[in-house]
Amino acid sequence: MNLLFLCTGNACRSQMAEGWARHLAPAHWHIESAGIEAHGKNPRAIAVMKEAGVDIAAQESTRLDDAMLARADYLVTVCGNADEHCPALPAGTRKEHWPLADPARATGTEEEVMAVFRATRDEVRERVADLIDRLHEEGPA
Q1: What SS3 state is found at 126?
Q2: Domain map of the chain by residue range?
Q3: What are phi and psi of 10, to 5 degrees?
Q4: Dmax over Cα atoms in the chain, in whole Å?
Q5: 23: which of 33, 104, 122, 130 is 20 to 30 A away, CA to CA?
Q6: Does position 86 have pLDDT exceeding 90, yes or no?
Q7: C-alpha torsion sign, points 64, 116, 52, 41
Q8: Shortest CA distance to 106 belongs to which of 21, 19, 45?
Q9: What does the pLDDT average to over 48-69?
Q10: Mean pLDDT throughout 51-74?
Q11: What residues are paired with 95 via a beta bridge?
Q12: Are 106 and 112 in contact (CB under 8 A)?
């Protein structure tokens, strides 16, 4: 199974999804994330994932390319912009959309902003775990 998570800038939500999928999916699955653009990783996303025991610091913020699309068996867009600007997928590639709010847009005190990042992290974990379970039920990958 080749999973690809797509976001606008590959900085927060798709990075979290990649990290959770690498943590929860079978070791032989290939997991990637990318952005319509590459904005670099958000330090708060790295911090909240580390709190949960998942290190995403070594993941790259990458821009979507044709090779990634060609490899993907299953693509998940994690924001409306990525869903709207997702290129045409190769035949057989399945797609799902998760309308996740962007934690990088959170405002308030540092504690309030970090609470938004934690809530996003937890929602992404639930969605990734559900996706992996559903794909497992379909048969071997």
Answers
A1: helix
A2: 2-138
A3: 55, 45
A4: 46
A5: 104
A6: no
A7: positive
A8: 45
A9: 96
A10: 96
A11: 75
A12: yes
pTM value surpassing 0.85:
yes
Confidence check: pLDDT of 61 > 90: yes
Structure tokens at 58: 């070594």
**90-95: long-range contacts at Cβ-Cβ below 8 A with a sequence spacing of 24 or more?**
93/69
Those residues with Cβ within 8 angstroms of residue 45's Cβ, 6 or more apart along the chain or in another chain: 11, 12, 15, 16, 56, 103, 117, 121
pLDDT at position 80 over 60 = yes
> What confidence tier does 140 reach under pLDDT thresholds 50, 70, 90?
low
For tokens 């900085």, the residue is 11
In sign, the C-alpha dihedral spanning 68, 70, 74, 75 is positive
Contact 11, 116 (CB under 8 A): no
Give me the residue label for tokens 């999928």.
Answer: 21
Residue 45 near residue 74, CB atoms below 8 Å: no
Q: Which residues form the catalytic set?
A: 7, 79, 86
Give, for 118, the enclosing helix (H) or strand (E).
helix 110-138
